[in-house]
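Quick one, T. Sequence first:
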Amino acid sequence: MYNPAQKAITDYYNQLAPNYDADRFNNTYGQYLHRQEAFFMHKMMAQDTNPVLSLGCGTGRLMEMATHGADISPAMIDEAVKKYPGKKFTVSSATDTVYDDGFFKGIFSLHVLMHLPHNTIEAILTEAYRITAADGWLIIDFPNKNRKKGKKSKEGWHAATGFTTKEFAILALEHGWLIQQHYGLLLFPVHRLSPAVRRLFFRADTWLCRLFTKKFASYILVKLYKK
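Structure tokens:
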């Protein structure tokens, strides 16, 4: 049984699921973001890592990097299964999964924390710690609070939660995780650029998101390991 917050998220994504990929990633902005995320994920992940869980997998984006997928939305899982029938999927909350202790070598969870309150984020870090092996890792992203300074926070749950890298490092450490690597995502305001020129910024954007300038990116992508 879902609590009210989980039900709101589940209902929202159940409704979006049939057209989610077309609406979110079948455009130059979505393709730009996906390409940048995939670039940094490949840098962070060992190619022989197995098994790997995509936690909050949605319709299966980036499932080529995972063996298992879990999402709270049954409709999202239905779409993921269509694309990846050979993968293993479960309908599950990220705070209370069905997996055994230490089952996964690694977990990644993208575009999930931004929607959640701090107590739920802490529960996810705890659950990920439980189901990850002793030498395992967790790759996760969040909106960069440095980028949001001076801006009014959004109402409700959707994309309302951000951190600085230091704030997230402190929170992660409280739940047994240490930051090993981190990169930025979307340093340039790509959404404000003409679709015709967005791709021209990709190389410079991705390069700057590896340098000290990543602290000004829209999102931060971190790789954590169990201490």
